[in-house]
Amino acid sequence: MSIWRTKSIELSMADTEDPEFKLKKSLTALDLTVFGIGVIIGAGIFTLTGRVAQAYAGPGVVFSFIVAAICCGLAALCYAEFASTVPVSGSAYTFSYATLGEMIAWIIGWDLILELMLGASVVAQGWSSYFETFLGEIGLGWPESLGYGDTFDLPAFLLVVILTALVAFGIKESLRVNLVLVALKLFIVLFVIVMGIQFIDTDNYKPFVPASAPGTTGEGWLHTPLIQTVFGAPGVYGVAGILFAASLVFFAYIGFDVVATTAEEARNPQKDLPRGIIGSLVVCTILYVAVALVITGMVKYDDINPDAALATAFIDQGKDGYATLISAGAVAGLTTVVMTLMIGAVRVFFAMSRDGLMPTAFAHVSPKTGTPVRITLAIGLVVALVASLTPIGKLEEMVNIGTLSAFALVSIAVPILRKNRPDLERSFRVPFSPWLPWLSAAICVFLMLNLTAETWLRFLVWMALGFAIYFGYGYRHSRVGQGAGEPAKDYSRRD
């Protein structure tokens, strides 16, 4: 048996009808679009925009968002073709299994689970900080020993516990709550844009792209972008700063790919998934660029508060009440991010368990809720403990490199599947294939090279651990390896 063995599309589709592992199909195109917006609009607008503009790109952070959006847009087209052709839970993991082989699929799935769980933990800690700030602004308090930055972060723990229960109860119910919070979040983001325009000083845009500064974006080669370590390029501002900032603000876009993890629960995946993926990306790109223009127009880029850019900008204008409203929006916004990342992690773990690469017992679906309750509770427990007990710090780069690697592999897999299975019905097709998918993969790799050497070392350690688990458990317990994929020919005959 080969580590490059693939799981047939027919078998993947047949597994979705197995009563023991069957998820409830209840999501519409609107649900999927809101789902994507719910996770994309969050930390990127409320924290990342100001910090990156202040430290690396100045007003040119607008171009950073556009570069990241182009990368995501190309990858989104590839995801849309795959998700509409193979509407099965697992996202990049499932797509890779059908084209690039089991070992690559395992590595991507393993990486996605950890990245989504880590991302949820990091955002939960950020939520805790905004939650305490909001309570303080409305005259309430929180125990100092049980808050953000303390030994035990109780708000982050309680948030994850509540969201775990909601996700376990049902995907449709989760997205109803998500819809309300996303509506509130979008209202506040639009409020920031409309109200902030009146305080813009066009002199703050000069220079729009600050001159390149010598040195690195960190201390020592470990904290320097890998491409700069090799070629010795300037570290901040200018074109190099914009590109490095693009690799950071990419974190703000993660989410549209999480929509693909719910493919199996969409009512009409062939049409609704492409609409949900591309629609959420377009809406969020417009909002990000608008907010970046407002922030850098209200405050000179080198005076931006990197920790609370939006709130501080309005406080400086004497609008403390606006700052309170923004904090409330951040609480609502980050809640949806944590929930959506957890849903994504659960669906990827579910797909891997159903294939035998993880213990199959986890993949059982509750007949009452139509969700994999065991996986949901397990992942919720891990995220709650990590968020409340671990001083994670700023690990957006680790999330980015895992996501970019998944994007690159999905992009490569699109022309491979077209060549190997031209007979499959594709309701959505990436234009200009294979050139556009190859361009998508190249841009993803380029942005990965703009991440720090330290991030690359951690990523390699992560990959090594994944290999160890795959060969220690997954390879021997794989359903495809045990012959569950045979008769793949029998499934083919049903077409």
TrEMBL record:
Membrane topology designation: Multi-pass membrane protein
GO molecular function, one term: amino acid transmembrane transporter activity
Annotated localization: Membrane
Keywords: Membrane, Transmembrane, Transmembrane helix, Transport
InterPro entries membership: AA/rel_permease1
Signal peptide residues on this chain, from the entry's feature table: none
Pfam family, one: AA_permease_2
UniProt keyword annotation of Transport present: yes
Record-annotated membrane-spanning stretches: 29-49, 61-82, 103-127, 154-171, 178-200, 235-256, 277-301, 321-350, 371-392, 398-418, 430-449, 455-473
A GO CC term attached to the entry: membrane
Keyword rRNA processing: no
Protein name per its UniProtKB record: Amino acid permease
Annotated source species: Nocardioides oleivorans
